[in-house]
Design a protein that fits this description.
disordered N terminus; about 220 residues; 8-stranded mixed sheet; Rossmann fold; disordered C terminus; about 20% helix; 8 strands
Length: about 220
């Protein structure tokens, strides 16, 4: 069996590519309405246009660093675990490489500020994946434990709507994942995306992925 080769791009570039591919394939880009994104200080940053509709007519888009420090172009500085926003004001909240076990203050705050009919997106390294286990120790990103996070979401009166992954064993485009075998690699994918909604919200459209160049795989509903 041939050895697995590392991609030519840097780890940060591949993480950005896979993360953006998941968001695009899940239809969670160029959203209209109020949008909040919180990211780990070492996470690759998205182009603001990727997440938010171009016109400000449709709402405001706020990006915060988990570090509490103001980043480039950031107009709000606050503790990401204690947000200065009213309840249920954001149409979409994205936690980008922030959540691990689900006990983080940011998750509870994201649920609090998420609108009744809004969507919560958790995006990050899969704790069972190759990239999480081999990442640089100096800039370690948290790894998501999907079942623990789902249990925490349920205690916060949220409902999981989808779980999907991209990348495998450090490759940005593993062949078998790009050839239409959904679900085979999601549990060990490098990057995972979880979608959730308020339990009392109108039914949202579950994740339904289009064909993607970033090797997206969709798992069956999580059990257990």
């Amino acid at each position: 069996m041939p050895a697995i080769s590392r991609p030519v791009e840097s780890d940060r570039e591949v993480l950005k590519s896979l993360s953006e591919g998941l968001l695009r394939s899940a239809g969670r880009t160029a959203v209209r309405g109020h949008l909040l994104e919180i990211h780990h200080p070492s996470a690759p940053l998205f182009d603001p246009v990727l997440l938010h509709a171009a016109s400000d007519t449709f709402g405001v888009s706020i990006s915060l660093s988990q570090s509490g420090g103001a980043g480039d172009g950031q107009c709000v500085r606050c503790e990401s675990g204690s947000l200065p926003f009213q309840d249920r004001v954001f149409n979409m909240v994205v936690l980008h490489h922030v959540v691990g076990d689900g006990d983080e203050d940011e998750l509870a705050e994201a649920v609090r500020v998420l609108a009744r009919n809004g969507v919560l997106i958790l995006l990050g390294l899969n704790r069972m994946g190759w990239r999480y286990r081999t990442q640089d120790r100096d800039q370690r990103l948290p790894g998501i434990a999907p079942f623990r996070v789902r249990a925490r979401l349920e205690r916060l009166e949220m409902t999981m709507q989808g779980f999907a992954g991209a990348g495998l064993a450090g490759l940005s485009r593993p062949a078998f994942m790009a050839k239409g075998l959904p679900g085979l690699g999601a549990s060990v994918a490098d990057i995972v995306l979880l979608q959730a909604r308020h339990r009392d919200s109108p039914e949202l459209t579950p994740l339904k992925f289009e064909k993607s160049g970033s090797a997206v795989v969709q798992s069956a509903a999580m059990r257990g």
